[in-house]
Amino acid sequence: MMFKGSTSIILVGWLLMVTGDRECSWSRTTVQKVDSCPVNKSTYEQRRMEKNCQALAELQHCTTPSNFLYHCLINEYGDALIEVCAPIFIINGYCAEYNIIGARIQPHYSLKCSDINPPCGDRYNSTDAYLYTGCYDIVKKNQLKTNVNTNTVSSTELSTTVGEIPVKENSSLETQPALIAVIVIVMIAVVTVVIAVPILVIKRRGYPCRKVSEGSPEQNPLMPLKKSTILSGSVTNFTCDRSRYEKFINLGKALRDTLLVEGDTLQDKMDENKGLKDLLS
């Protein structure tokens, strides 16, 4: 029983070492996206020296310093290349990737070694990923597709924007005649008011009825003065309020027409009235 318990503890510890140590947050601090990865030994050594992973190898606690090495791998999405200092890992049958979220090197399960050209090895160290350029080529193809899609979307948006410009211009052109019509109507109304107001004021105040240069007001008893200037016993000018006497004049005309018999004249009626007056007296 004690042997079985000890075996279980050893297995659990081994699993923790294998799985739990796979995440290395130290490696995440060294991640850098690059345009290309080395494809031969000399370029690999040059880039390894520039990255200088040895400076951090003594500080990190993910693995032994000798296993904390330079890598150039694809990312977890297969659309970018990454330089990183990370613990070495053995890859079986797939392209190698560095997962930024998990902070670890692992197989890129959507890219089998047998599906790329040239194919990668069935089993290889993650530091040897530079030997299998077919994995890098997939990234370049994915980047090209992304750029094409981005350009297509940009072109569509540009076409839509350019297509909208004439519509806006036409709309403004269509509103101009309506605006001009409103302005013209307002101007006509203003001019009409300016002309009509003085006329109405003049009519309400009255207007000259007769101009007399000689004589006195008594010579015109039916034309009362509204405004007059009397010089040397003569009236030089006067006006009358026509509306106040028109109804009496019209009433007199109607009465005259009623009294006159057809064929009679006003003089006949006057003579007749005079004879009647003499008879009564």
From TrEMBL:
The keyword Membrane is annotated on this UniProt entry: yes
Secretion signal, residue range per the UniProt entry: 1-20
Bilayer-crossing regions: 178-202
Keywords: Membrane, Signal, Transmembrane, Transmembrane helix
Name of the protein: Uncharacterized protein LOC111104034
Taxonomy of the source species: Eukaryota, Metazoa, Spiralia, Lophotrochozoa, Mollusca
